[in-house]
Amino acid sequence: MELRVFEIIESTNSLRLFADKLKNSSWVALDTEFIRERTYYAKLCLIQIEADGHRACIDPLKVKDLSPLSEIFNNANIIKVFHAAHQDLEILSQVLGDIPSPIFDTQVAAAVLGIGDQMSYARLVEAVLNISLEKTQSRTDWSRRPLKPAQLEYAIDDVRYLAQLYPKMLEQLKNKGRLGWLNKDFNKAVDPQTYEISPQSRWKKVRGNQILKRPQLAVLRELAAWREEKAERADLPRKWIINDDILLELARQQPQSPQQISEIRGVTDKMAKYHKIWLELINKAKGLPESEWPELPRSKKPTPTQNTLIDLLMIVLNIKAKENGITAASIATRKQIAQMVQNGSTVLSEDWRGAIVNEEFARILSGDVALGVENAKVRLLRRF
After folding, report:
1. Strand 43-51's sheet: what is its strand order?
2. Rounded to whole angstroms, what are the CA distances from 70 to 20, 78, 212, 217?
3. How many Cβ atoms are within 10 Å of 198's Cβ, its own excluded?
4. What is the tens place of the pLDDT at every residue in 280-309?
5. Which domains does the chain have, with CATH numbers?
């Protein structure tokens, strides 16, 4: 059994020495542990890293200067390997100011290889390495110190096996000629715009907003933007400022006095300090012209003819997915196919997913290809 030997780094000097060991690596495996229950921004509590046999748990609560990592993260010659990279990249960019690049995401690669769609790290490790990971520390409060040895070992396993997954999956992608399929997904993951939060668009994330009419959505937009900015400044969860239910009721009822606000269910005495601000925002929204009211995209039900086309394309989707040894769900959902049909498009996307089905979709919609049955199997048949 391989020993779980790793460093615990608690000083900038130790981090600098460790980073120096990795500067000539072609890739590094990375993971983070964080908490975000009590803050607006996730609180980075641990960084795990492995490359060329060097492993470490870096404690950002004790290491005040993490800049030595920037030399690794910003090095274009070193691939940063993650599993389900989005949150890790978001947090690291907040702390270090830059998004680590270039990257490789084993969750995305698993879909392309047909191992599974949206696979968890534990399931992927079991599927590829035949190793079952312990889950005993999954509820750890990573902000508490000192961390127990069992917690650190649990954390280091996230890069220990990631470092074993990467070369295996890379080889499989090359053998299948699919390595290039991942480029657009990875480029999007390291695009700063992916992580930008616009206060003026946060109303779209308010649960239940579909019940509101356009004038009410204008009020919701102002209130949600105010909440976003206040939560960010105070570094507190949004719901600690005001929860979605109250936002919706303020937008729906549009009260015109502090008394009317206080009668809304859930509004507490502690919120009285916000009444004046809310009233100003409500009146501001009410004064907007109709042209500036926001609007939610209202999905229309497909027509019977469109439903027939969607059914047809779903069959094509399943055929092409099977041919490529991947799940249909990793390519597209029925909802996505429906949107494509309703928009009058023959193109699903411009990434690897589209590369699998775009051509056949266009051919079947133009009548150049038909569905038929051969040897008791549904097949795509060319029409000449």
Report:
1. 7-9, 54-58, 43-51, 27-35, 79-82, 103-105
2. 12, 12, 46, 42
3. 9
4. 999 999 999 999 999 998 778 999 999 999
5. 7-195 (3.30.420.10), 199-292 (1.10.150.80), 304-382 (1.10.150)
